[in-house]
Amino acid sequence: MGNELKAGMKYHVGMYGGAFNPMHNGHMECILKAASMCEKLFVVISYRNDASDIDVKVKYRWVYTLTSHIGNVKIILLEDRLKNKSEYTRKYWEEDSRKIKAAIGEKIDAVFFGSDYDKDGIWKECYPESEPVIFERDGCNSTAIRNDVYGNWDLLPLFVRPYYVKKVLIIGIESCGKSVLAINLAHHYHTNFLEEVGRDMSFLSGSPTMMLTEDYTRILLEHKAKEMRLIEFSNKVLIEDTDCLITRFFMDFLENESEDNLALAESIAKLNHYDLILLAEPDVEWVQDGDRSEKMAANRRHYSERVEKLYNRFGFRCEHISGTYAERYEKAIKLIDALFVPNDKK
User: Fold this and answer.
1) Contact in structure between 108 and 101 (CB atoms under 8 Å)
2) Which pLDDT tens digit goes with each residue over 74-105?
3) What is the pTM of this model?
4) Disulfide-capable partner of 110 in 14, 263, 268, 345 (CB 3.0 to 4.6 Å)?
5) What is the per-residue pLDDT for 124?
6) Which fold has domain 11-148?
7) CATH fold for the domain made of 165-345
């Protein structure tokens, strides 16, 4: 092809860089437009190896998800050694630009950046041989988004949102309103809920006491797999009705313990994390729906305390919700809303 450009493309090689902490719609639009203007676009991801930044592997996946279908985008990683932009002197910028140029290995015809940067600033100084191409950011500001992710939810691409989805788990013994509360909360937040997988499995045997050992294996694995899928499509929060430790509790209660299932339940528990755990107190009327345990009904407080102790053993702290169904609902909303408070308001 020589020096001829492909139809509709203005540049042979272009470069776009960012911290993507987080990636937002402004970044996304810049990258897509830049890729359509170049034969090759190099996206430079700057990152820091500390808690102030998002894991570089997560950032890489975001950029890859956005661009893998295009075919002309290559990703370069650049470690950011300083925490504040104000600490970057010309010396550091020039050193980084040399690393980028060496990684690209050919003349950079265009440097793309958002309108929040000065066109006569560092890009012009460090890339004098490249044409600066500025894209309007349309109100996207990384710092503002970072400080209030949930208030700026619509500014995040769909593939970025799962990283920020909060997980709220509702636990308790039988007949304490968990399932109804989970569904009601999911409707309130216009999001998904993960139903209690074990309940459906118990219907296969006609009774929880007749469940097979392999049924518990399936419950544990299906619940975790469903959780991972639902997070991808949830709106700010995922509501979960029970988890592996409740399954672990019922294996003990129903005397259907196998060493392998116990180990599986506890391994999953060590992988799990929740932003909020709501323990539904057994102070609402107990309802027999056909297969609930009369033994548990006779000593509800005792078994509820056993559930909480099990969660405490794995390092989980529970918020108690009690009272009428309406009171539980209102308290749960208050606790969940607190998860979305901006960083500067906490």
Assistant:
1) yes
2) 999 999 877 666 676 778 888 999 999 999 99
3) 0.90
4) 14
5) 77
6) Rossmann fold (3.40.50)
7) Rossmann fold (3.40.50)
